[in-house]
């Protein structure tokens, strides 16, 4: 699902949609993006949506800033790439991962540090060995701050690295604040 634009009497209106969360994806111990014990990491949570998309949620901290009060562009690229890369797990399983072949992004608006950030990603075409994906970092009002697209190689995690699920604590970590639905305001 791409961001929605509703035109009423020549004006662009924002639409809010209540979307069901189907499943939470695993976190790890030390990954920069999803590691829950990484002191400088994003500690992102990933949710699979009924739309077939994936949503990442994280709260940036001062260590993630570029200009004062703004998310660093490299950190924005990291979370956007990870979210699109994880979109393959929605369709297959957490044993198949997306390995980045090519990634680009377009910065439209600054991303503030003082609030929770949502990132939505999806598969736009799926081939035998690769897939293409797109995603957006959304601001509170639903406007798109940053857009990204990429091409990813589908790989079994056992072929990427020596991955010790237990040692890396790769598992779904339930949280009392995990939502059952999410209201996504799209412009």
Outline the secondary-structure elements.
Blueprint: E1 6-8, E2 11-13, E3 15-24, E4 45-49, E5 54-58, H1 73-91, E6 96-107, E7 117-126, E8 130-138, E9 144-156, H2 157-160, E10 181-186
Antiparallel strand pairs: 1-2, 3-4, 3-10, 4-5, 5-7, 6-9, 7-8, 8-9
- Our count of domains comes out at 1
CATH architecture: Roll
Strand order of the largest sheet: 6-9-8-7-5-4-3-10
The helix-and-strand class reads mainly beta
Features:
187 residues, mainly beta, Thiol Ester Dehydrase, Chain A, eight-stranded antiparallel sheet, two-stranded antiparallel sheet, 41% strand, globular
Tell me what the structure shows.
A hairpin with a 3-residue loop joins strand 7 (117-126) and strand 8. This protein is 12% helix and 41% strand. It is mainly β and 187 residues long. Residues 1-9 have low confidence and may be disordered. It has a single domain, classed as Hotdog Thioesterase (Thiol Ester Dehydrase, Chain A, Roll). The radius of gyration is 16 Å and the shape is globular. It has helices at 73-91, 157-160, and strands at 6-8, 11-13, 15-24, 45-49, 54-58, 96-107, 117-126, 130-138, 144-156, 181-186. The longest helix has 19 residues, at 73-91. It has 2 helices and 10 strands. The strands form 2 sheets. Strands 6-9-8-7-5-4-3-10 form an 8-stranded antiparallel beta sheet. Strands 1-2 form a two-stranded antiparallel sheet.
In short, what is this structure?
This protein has 187 residues and is mainly β. It is built from two helices and ten strands.
């Amino acid at each position: 699902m791409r961001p929605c634009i509703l035109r009423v009497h020549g004006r662009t209106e924002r639409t809010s949609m209540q979307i069901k969360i189907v499943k939470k994806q695993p976190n790890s111990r030390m990954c920069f993006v999803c590691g829950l014990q990484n002191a400088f990491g994003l500690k992102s949570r990933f949710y699979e949506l009924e739309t077939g998309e994936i949503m990442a949620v994280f709260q940036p901290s001062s260590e993630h800033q570029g200009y004062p009060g703004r998310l660093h562009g490299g950190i924005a690229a990291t979370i956007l790439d990870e979210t699109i890369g994880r979109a393959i797990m929605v369709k297959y399983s957490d044993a198949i991962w997306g390995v980045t072949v090519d990634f680009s992004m377009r910065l439209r608006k600054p991303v503030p540090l003082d609030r929770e950030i949502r990132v939505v990603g999806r598969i736009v075409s799926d081939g035998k060995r690769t897939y293409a994906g797109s995603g957006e970092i959304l601001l509170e009002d639903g406007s798109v701050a940053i857009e990204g697209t990429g091409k990813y190689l589908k790989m079994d995690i056992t072929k990427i690295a020596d991955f010790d699920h237990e040692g890396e604590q790769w598992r779904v970590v339930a949280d009392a604040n995990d939502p059952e639905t999410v209201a996504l305001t799209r412009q």
